[in-house]
Design a protein that fits this description.
This protein is mainly alpha-helical. The chain is built from twelve helices and eight strands. It has one domain. The protein is globular.
């Protein structure tokens, strides 16, 4: 693969072309499922619970991601509605995916009788692992990259392998591999989530909040390098705040180009800042009010049955059946014995 440009199409089955983008997203979903299943077993949750969640959540996430992207790029799609469905060409937004997935999760968890916070905590590492892997789909499609850089920066400063450097050459220009920056940041975040969820002081919902904080901080700074950011025209003071927050990066990198015609505030940066603020406020607020009394390590209770996850209510006939068994065991050669109710 060294020195070769990757073909976005992995293979073809007759008229059907299978894209690397889809394979990578599928792999990301599978890895996320395996992580959730493994952790869920500690709390008595069955693999089927997470399999059903995946079957519902992935389509919801894809629809949300695509709708989010198309909404901010409507001028490009309004005259080509069929292009809305061509997700293999890229053009999905992670925040839209999160919105779709979380709406699905809230409904599904409620239907199953579980607290949203408890199950979302288990799924948080799956989310960041999926994003870590999914970013490589952007690499194959040569999209979601940063601004121009020198080839020597990729080879000598970052020490990237030749196959990555070659594929960051788009039409003769080398670009920041922002997909790689975010993938590595998410890998570190995955390790952080693995560590903190074993700490006794972590309360319900705080693994999820940590995920939002970690991902959003990285996304804010990496987004500033990109040249394809969704943007809008906001107040000058708000744009100045975004620029000031990103300014430490200017000591190392040049900010990616943002077309003034599209806006002066990158939407993903603004959402990242708001998510960090909201997550910190949520942690403090839930602890202050006592809403986060349950710890991550506590048993997960199904509020429909009142039992820990994995335990089923006893059948109404079970006590009677058990009494009959006891009578038979107590009888034997001694004749009939009396069993006290």
């Amino acid at each position: 693969m060294n020195g070769l440009r990757l073909d976005p199409i992995a293979f073809s089955l007759g008229p059907i072309s299978v894209h690397w983008y889809g394979i990578i997203l599928g792999t990301a979903a599978l890895v996320g499922l395996l992580l959730a299943v493994r952790e869920g077993k500690r709390f008595g949750l069955s693999p089927d619970f997470f399999m059903d969640l995946l079957l519902l959540g992935v389509p919801s996430a894809i629809i949300g991601a695509r709708l989010y992207f198309v909404a901010f790029k409507w001028d490009e799609y309004k005259n080509n509605l069929l292009d809305v469905f061509k997700i293999w060409n890229g053009g999905i937004a992670i925040y839209g995916a999160l919105i779709g997935a979380f709406i699905c999760g809230i409904i599904y968890f409620r239907y199953k009788g579980y607290s949203f916070w408890r199950i979302a905590d288990i799924c948080a590492p799956s989310l960041i692992a999926g994003q870590m892997i999914g970013r490589w789909g952007n690499f194959v499609n040569q999209e979601a990259h940063g601004g121009p850089v020198e080839e020597s920066f990729l080879r000598n400063s970052l020490h990237l392998p030749d196959w990555i450097v070659t594929n960051m050459n788009i039409d003769g220009v080398f670009y920041h591999p922002t997909f790689l920056y975010e993938s590595i940041w998410n890998l570190l975040g995955l390790i952080v989530l693995f560590v903190i969820r074993r700490r006794h002081f972590i309360r319900a919902g705080e693994v999820l909040m940590t995920y939002f904080i970690w991902y959003s901080v990285g996304r804010f700074f990496i987004e500033g390098l990109r040249t394809d950011s969704l943007a809008f025209h906001g107040a000058a003071w708000a744009a100045s705040i975004m620029d000031a927050l990103w300014s430490p990066m200017k000591l190392i990198f040049e900010q990616g180009y943002l077309n003034p015609a599209e806006g002066n505030i990158r939407i993903s940066q603004l959402i990242a800042v708001l998510l960090v603020i909201a997550a910190v406020a949520m942690i403090i607020g839930r602890r202050t009010t006592g809403a986060a009394s349950a710890r991550y390590s506590d048993p997960i209770i199904n509020y429909k049955t009142g039992l820990p996850a994995g335990e089923m209510p006893e059948s109404k006939d079970k006590p009677a059946a058990r009494r009959a068994d006891l009578k038979e065991e107590a009888g034997g050669d001694q004749g009939e014995s009396t069993i006290k109710e």
